[in-house]
Amino acid sequence: MSELIQELQREYGYSDYDIAKVKYVLASLFSEFSKLLLFGTLFGVLGYFYPFLFSIILLLFLRINIGGLHCKHYMSCLLLTFFILYMSIMFFPNLFSLSTTHIMFFSIICMIINFYIGPVASPFRPAPDSVLIKSCRNIGFFIIFSFILCVSIFQNISFLAPYIQVGFWTIVLHTIQLIVAKILRTGGIY
Predict the structure, then answer these.
(1) Residue 117 exposure: Cα atoms within 13 Å on the Cβ side
(2) Torsion angle defined by CA atoms of residues 91, 62, 163 and 110, in that order, rounded to the nearest 10 degrees
């Protein structure tokens, strides 16, 4: 690794700051990829690979645009992500089977909450400007609105019912952690 760093500095004139950014990106990519691999394997073994895939894609788009809680350490991030995935894929859908009307109603509430209190960016990143905030809010709104639209169109297709439940609980849990992040940020704790 040190040879690669020396090569980047010698050949391309990377500063120590540039090298630190490259290291951060590589560490982040490894961290996220390892979590995806671990969770994909776990939920695949448990027979929930496709619901996992649906949940993680939805969660990924929401988190990128709306933000939420961000952990300082790999293990705490791993545990928080596992909690959200487990609850949205296996626990809540098996405990509560909500009607389409309830799903759409509560999804609209989540969409409004996400729009008004998001985005909550990581405290380790620069604060977003007003243009980025507006863009992120609009994209988050569109993501949840698209989910609601798909629920209304595909509600009677029985093999999609588990995915509708998983998507709904993913949105709800994302919204809850967003609210917690906003409260902590407002209180100066986060």
Answers:
(1) 21
(2) 70
**Three-state secondary structure call for residue 123:** coil
pLDDT in tens, 44-76: 999 999 999 999 999 999 998 998 888 888 899
pLDDT tens sequence across 7-43: 767 777 777 777 777 777 778 788 889 999 999 999 9
Q: Are 125 and 185 in contact (CB under 8 A)?
A: no
CA pair distance 22, 2, nearest whole angstrom: 13
Structure tokens at 155: 């509600």
Torsion, CA 19, CA 22, CA 24, CA 26, rounded to 10: -140
Encoded tokens for 54: 């649906």
Listed in sequence order, the residues at least 6 apart from 155 whose beta carbon sits closer than 8 Å to its beta carbon are 100, 164
Q: Which two tokens stand for residue 137?
A: 């809010």
Neighbours of 179 (CB within 10 A): 17
The Cα 59–Cα 168 span in angstroms is 11
Entry pTM: 0.86
CB neighbour list of residue 54: distance below 8 Å, 6 or more residues apart: 163, 166, 167
